[in-house]
Amino acid sequence: MTAVLVPLVVLLPMLGAATALILGRHRRAQMAVGISVLAAVTGIAAVLLVAVDTSGPAVVYLGAWDAPWGITLVVDRLSAIMLVISAIMLLVVLVYSVGQGIADRHRETPVSIFHPSYLILSAGVFNAFIAGDLFNLYVGFEILLAASYVLLTLGGTGERIRSGVTYIITSLVSSLFFLSAIALIYGATGTANIAQLSVRLAELPQDVQLILHLLLLVAFGIKAAVFPLSFWLPDSYPTAPAPVTAVFAGLLTKVGVYAIIRTETVLFTESDLSTLLIVIGGLTMLIGILGALTQADIKRLLSFTLVSHIGYMIFGIGLSSVIGLTATIYYVVHHITVQTALFLTTGLIERFGGATSITRLAGLAKASPLLAVLFFIPAMNLGGIPPFSGFLGKAGLFIAGAQGTTADASGPAGGGAPGPVWLIWVVIAAGAATSLITLYALTRFWNMAFWRGREELEGYESVLLGSVLEAPEGATVTATRTTPVLMVVATASLVAVTVCLTVFAGPLYDLAGRAAEGLSDPSVYVSIVFPEGVR
Amino acid sequence: MTASLTLVILMAVLFGAGISVMLERSLTRVLIGFLLVGNAVNILMYLMSGTPGLAPILGAGVDEGEISDPLPQAFVLTAIVINLGITAFMLALIYRSWWLAKLGAKGDLVDDEAELAEDAEETADLIRSSAADDEAIQSLIEASDEDPSTGSGQRLDEVDAGIDEEELEREASARDRDDEGSRP
After folding, report:
1. What is the ipTM of this complex?
2. CA distance A169 to chain B (A)
3. Per-residue burial over A167-186, b = 16 or more CB atoms within 10 Å of its CB, e = otherwise
């Protein structure tokens, strides 16, 4: 039963995309197709999660070709968790964009290509999560990247083309890295199947393993926007339409993080780069957040916090212990929802306040208390204020790090001991500092945009105002801006999901723990794909 | 595993040339570089399939050890298809970027002045075409002036001019309507 459901996760969005393309002239039908497909995938993903959690990973051999030759799809707990959270998020953002489209009468997204591209992006993301071999993972990446190129340059304005070029060239280079890595791995082992690689890569000489490992990490690191490879992100994300930025920020980098988790746990069981990962994680946190400090524009500010918080996940992976991975998985889920919620709220702020820069926003708390709440909850969550999931995830990571320094009994999952003790404490300190600076950056935005009175907006000069003053006869124009209900509902429901992550943190953390345990022993993964043993 | 030296050299040259072209500022060169490096990677993948052998079709009398590895070939085919799609998109992007660089944002708009100039030209054409009629009418009028017994010259002139003006007006209003319709 579950085996039938696995390919549907990719098939449905693909067929939906084709249908939406055919229905290009019927916008309502397109919306209906998009929303119903993603709702169906959300349901399937939830069923898969329950099934996988109770009865073990599901494996599908496409076309009945046996494992090392054919395309294998594997859904273990980690894949299922990622499927569920990304499907929920994609659905909510689609509802939001439909609301925006209706409100704008489709001026922002005037092309019929939005819905098909969006569904293809979803198919690529889902495919990457369930891929059982490296080449299929590559295809998943390419599907989602090709769709993201279209979405990022939607409308083809000069600004979007310029930022799109940066994004596209960077992604192309990372894809070339990934493909070269696959070629070399195939040359060294004669397979691209992840389960088989798990066994065969470990048999290679250490130096060969190191080269292959680094190649893959560079490819995934560019996609996940890890520190030295992250400079493309803040330049390319903020110019896209709000829903597109929300999806990119929330999801695309996490696909890279997911791939890094797989690389570290299943693929390279014998090669150990955890010290490097811990150092890089710390640097990503600090340098990303220092970038956020200097930004006045909320979209750019959030893009920098996005880079910085990827560092936490890399740190958690670098710890290579079960509790480290548990915290990482919980943190990934938390970060997908919170970051997306913040970008959606930013879209609302832009509509309501007419700007995204703190130099031009003021008095929003008084003008729209609902908007204030919708911004405040995820902002405090991201900053790591105690009751919220951001605090739980960060605390989990720090505890995992601290335990790694004292006890080796927890059993390193990646096969190697995490770096020197002082290094872990330094990175934990960096993480705490990053959390505080995130809080500072977001509170600054909150103070300026929400709490500051309108009359305090000093030195605000506008070309438009100047021309009003020059025309004394001109009547005052008052524009009434209504915030569309559908957009608010979508944002509010995502904020509700982030709150749920806090309220149901216990069971979710347990689930993440079971997923991490499954990852810590790659032989389980291997035996599921190859029930009769690997040759 | 044995590999063809020619292919290795070809791959190295493609990698080198591709990367150096990719570092240029022009987008078209970046695309050419991407194509070269992409093909270099494809050759790398093909090289990794090991010793070349027979076509990978299993049948009667074919030894499994003699055929070449089909999997990298399938990978290369997939990669070629993906590269094709990306190239098509890049070409569109480059064209768009060239368009914006050349004309700026106003490249998407029809210039008012150009439109006015076009209108003026159309009007001039109309005037020119009606000039022949005018001349004929003028000669008629002159003839009638010379011969007052006919007396129909004046009326003819009025009627003709009326038609011309009406036509011009109708055309102008049609053009306006078109313009409004084409604006989003």
Report:
1. 0.82
2. 8
3. bbbbbbbbbbbbbbbbbbbb
